[in-house]
Specification:
Shape: globular
Radius of gyration: 18 Å
CATH architecture: Orthogonal Bundle
CATH topology: Arc Repressor Mutant, subunit A
CATH superfamily: Winged helix-like DNA-binding domain superfamily/Winged helix DNA-binding domain
Number of helices: 7
Largest sheet: 2 strands, antiparallel
Structural class: mainly alpha
Strand content: 5-15%
Number of domains: 1
Oligomer: single chain
Order of helices and strands: HHHHHEEHH
Strand order of the largest sheet: 1-2
């Protein structure tokens, strides 16, 4: 089944994308570009370092992105190279990454709400931007068309 632009508009899939993206990035201490790259990579079952580099072309240059994503557990090694028969390692997005992206999709589709508990970094209202994000999240949760 192929979706049309009208289907996406009726679903309102991107209506709250910015709020959800900001919340996910803030809660998990990742950059916006890293999150969008992880969404791209999660669509590829397995990838090499070269495919990662091809996916990064449209993002701002960040020399440490690959190691940071691997070190923080967003990308796992699926198969290690052995320098004789297997010339390069193959990677996949981690379980942690897949669960985060699935949760993001569920929030965008309205199947799940952004939790407003004390573990939410915006909950503390320390900064003006936290108050604004709390207001946006409240409006999103109360939206009957979501």
């Amino acid at each position: 089944m192929k979706l049309s632009p009208e289907d996406l508009k009726e679903m309102g899939l991107f209506k709250y994308y910015r709020i959800v993206r900001k919340w996910v990035c803030n809660q998990n201490d990742i950059l916006d570009a890293d999150l969008e790259l992880l969404v791209y990579l999660s669509c590829i079952p397995r990838f090499t370092r070269d495919e990662f580099i091809k996916g990064v072309y449209s993002y701002s240059w960040d020399k440490t992105r690959w190691e940071r994503l691997r070190k923080n557990g967003w990308i796992d090694v699926w198969r290690h190279r052995n320098r004789t028969t297997i010339k390069y390692s193959i990677f996949k997005t981690s379980y942690k990454c897949n669960m985060l992206i699935n949760r993001m999709y569920k929030i965008l589709l309205g199947e799940e709400d952004i939790p407003m508990t004390q573990t939410n970094k915006y909950y503390k209202n320390k900064k003006y931007t936290d108050k604004v994000m709390n207001k946006c999240i409240d409006d999103m949760i109360k939206d009957p068309d979501r």
